[in-house]
Amino acid sequence: MLKRLRHWREDRLIARLDLADQWESAVAPWPVAARYRGEARRRLKDTALRFVLRKQFVAGADFELDAPMRLLVATMAAVPVLELGLDWYRGWSSVVLYETPFVPAQEWEDEFGVVHQSDEALSGEAWPQGPVILSWHDVLEANGADGYNVVIHEMAHKLDMLDGDANGAPPLHRDMDPAAWKQSFSAAWDALEASAATETDDLPLDPYALTDSGEFFAVTSECFFEAPDRLATTWPDVYAQLRAFYRQDPRSETMA
């Protein structure tokens, strides 16, 4: 009953904001959106519009946001939860969008009690129960070919954080085997680590994935949606695990 009431209210707000008419042109530059056809495309659009309503979009450093920007980010965010539901993004409310990579205003304390502040510019960041922060410049880098998508990356972190820290083990569905998940991802980690050690430029995945298990899950999630053939060919077991988790198969000829 409460869900139906919320949807009814959102339907009225969507109509008032006149966002639906702008959606097609907003997502046209992103090749992944074109994979969704028919009923799947209708649901993708609907999920994106509801994401815009449920999350507050905040401009960082006086960057000017417009409706097409919000719609593109929302659609990228909608893709991972299309078959899971927006409730998987519960517990946080804001998306902060900077024009370019940003330096986070965060401090951390080392083992000796010394407080440090990073000066490294980031393309994206996700805080537990806090906002998702993105660089618009990097959002536009997603092209459906090289496996890169900063929005999907940070949303994967949010899914991973649902049961605690971003440790590469999001809440799995009841029909999934945690041991099989761990074995598949561990084998892929070892393979990427061995490939990266040879300093080759032709790696199946961005070596940033080797930062930790949480980053490995986020980077493989990017590749799953952006360059599924590459991931399925290189690590079919990881692809199968992500297909079971996201309940989608990006390699299928039609996503209808």
Label this structure with key terms.
alpha/beta; single chain; 10 helices; two-stranded antiparallel ribbon; 9% strand; Cyclin A, domain 1; four-stranded mixed β-sheet; 256 residues; 47% helix
Structure description:
The chain is globular and about 55 Å long. The chain has 256 residues and is α/β, with parallel strands linked by helices. The chain has one domain (2-102, 121-246): Orthogonal Bundle (Cyclin A, domain 1), CATH 1.10.472.150. It has helices at residues 2-17, 20-27, 38-54, 67-78, 136-139, 150-160, 178-197, 213-226, 228-234, 236-246, and strands at 56-59, 94-98, 107-109, 115-117, 124-126, 132-135.
Reconstruct the topology from this structure.
Elements: H1 2-17, H2 20-27, H3 38-54, E1 56-59, H4 67-78, E2 94-98, E3 107-109, E4 115-117, E5 124-126, E6 132-135, H5 136-139, H6 150-160, H7 178-197, H8 213-226, H9 228-234, H10 236-246
Helix pairs in contact: 2-4, 3-4, 6-8, 8-9, 9-10
Describe the structure in brief.
The protein has 256 residues and is an alpha/beta fold. The chain contains ten helices and six strands, in the order H-H-H-E-H-E-E-E-E-E-H-H-H-H-H-H.
Q: Work out the oligomeric state of the chains in this entry.
A: single chain
**Residues in helices, as a percent range:** 40-55%
Give the radius of gyration. Answer: 18 Å
The DSSP helix count reads 10
Give the topology string: H per helix, E per strand.
HHHEHEEEEEHHHHHH
